[in-house]
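Box 3.1 A note on notation
Throughout this textbook, protein chains are presented in two layers. The first layer is the amino acid sequence; the second is a token string describing backbone geometry. Keep the layers aligned when reading.
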Amino acid sequence: MWENHPVKACNPSTLREAATAFQTSRVLLTAIELRLFSHIRSEALTSAEVADRAGTDPHATDRLLNALCALNLLAKDRGRFRNTPDGARYLVDSSPDYAAGLAHSASMWIRWSTLTDTVKRGRAAGSRQPLNDRGDAWLEPFIAAMHYRARVQADAVAALLPLGAHTRVLDVGGGSGAFSIAMARRAHGLRAVVFDLPNVIPIAARYIAQAGASDAVTTVAGDYLRDPLPGGGFDLVFLSAVVHSNDAVQNAALIAACAGSLNPGGSVVIMDWVMAPDRVTPEPGALFAINMLVGTDDGDTFTEAEIHAWLTAAGLDRVERKPTPFGTDLVFGRRR
């Protein structure tokens, strides 16, 4: 029997819209890569002036700026281009509300372009360096994108976690430390350790210092698939956007290691897309599985039953699932 899913309208117009959506995406991402919005800042510039600042061809820059105006991402008056109020807020990289994740989306474009070959082969196409070895030009935008997403979500997620003044938290694959920072702010006296790759840790330390949280949040370098987790006993081990980077066997081993780091009564909490049994919903999770297919060797999105099995195999019980306001879920497993 067919699964009962709502069916969206499909006609030549909607098909064309879907097929050509890449054009809008590419115009925006190229503008981000060239920092055109940031070069314009609060000024009104000609295309030649923008090209001079960006180091680009004047004619090609003019046509790109016109396309950005057509998309309402810039405004044009008497041959001069300026940022819109929303553009100045979200697209100028010196703005506190800069949408930093867009720079990483430009990196993702390259991988998504290999989807056809990936589906033919069953493996991500092309050579790929380990994340720790990709260099600052890739790693800085990646962590910035993760920080942007986490910063928006962290306070609401922290409110759903079992936190207290004496809680010790291990934030596995914690990236910029945004979730640990939010936990420390919510529970005075809480201490957190961000555990991530050696080249990520200096970036994390910078974000933590900028937040004024260095007394509460510390860092330890390591690879969670190869190195022992920090010891000392934790009340909460938190994994946000981690399990989708691994296969099921790797995740089972990782969750077992996390459970071994817990104090009695402590919890392992996984935050990620949690797929329905048919893997069709939620829609962002189904698309994210493709992102993992083209971008990793083994990553995927997983069902609640799969995550439940890792937690119980690690000796955790009272498994519970809580939705977040962001479409992802928290899955808890507690140590007796």
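The chain has a mean pLDDT of 94. The chain has 14 helices and eleven strands.
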